[in-house]
Amino acid sequence: MTAVTEAPSLAALAERLALVACGENSRPGKTRACDSCAKKGSTLLRITSTGAADALAAAICGTGRGPACSDCQSKAVRMIRIYNRETE
After folding, report:
1. Cis peptide bond N-terminal to 28, omega within 30
2. What span, in angstroms and rounded, lies between the C-alpha atoms of 18 and 15?
3. Is 73 helix (H, G, I), strand (E, B) or coil?
4. How far, in Å, CA of 1 to CA of 78, rounded?
5. Could you report the per-residue pLDDT of 20-52, keeping only the tens digit for each?
6. Contacts made by residues 38-42, CB under 8 angstroms, sequence distance 24+
7. What is the DSSP string of 21-51?
8. Cβ contacts of residue 85 below 8 Å, gap of 6+?
9. 60 burial class (0-12, 13-18, 19+ CB within 10 angstroms)?
10. The pTM is what?
11. DSSP state, 87?
């Protein structure tokens, strides 16, 4: 018998993306996004689903418009990879 892995819920995926935006890689052991990033979770998920890296980076950076800093651009690319892997 083969086990079927369930796709994560959209809420869990939004939380995961918020954590990445909050700087999970720059703070070892960080397991939750701050309140500000957590509130952006559903918006980040929506933008991530389009694959628009520049728009996503601008949303992460907080400017709402480009160009975003290189750190936020890297986070955006990582978030799109996570989204694509989780929704396959």
Report:
1. no
2. 5
3. helix
4. 34
5. 999 987 777 889 999 999 999 999 999 999 999
6. 41/14, 41/15, 41/17, 42/14
7. HHTTTTSTT--S--HHHHHTHHHHHHHHHHT
8. none
9. buried
10. 0.83
11. T
CB-based contacts of 45: which residues, under 8 Å, 6+ apart?
10, 13, 14, 17, 83
How far apart, in Å, are the Cα atoms of 76 and each of 12, 32, 66, 82? 18, 18, 13, 10
The tokens describing 59, both together, are 């949303």
Burial pattern 34-51, b for ≥16 Cβ within 10 A else e, equals eeebbebbbebbebbeee
Residue 76 structure tokens? 């955006």
Residue 39 structure tokens: 């509130």
The residue type at 16: R
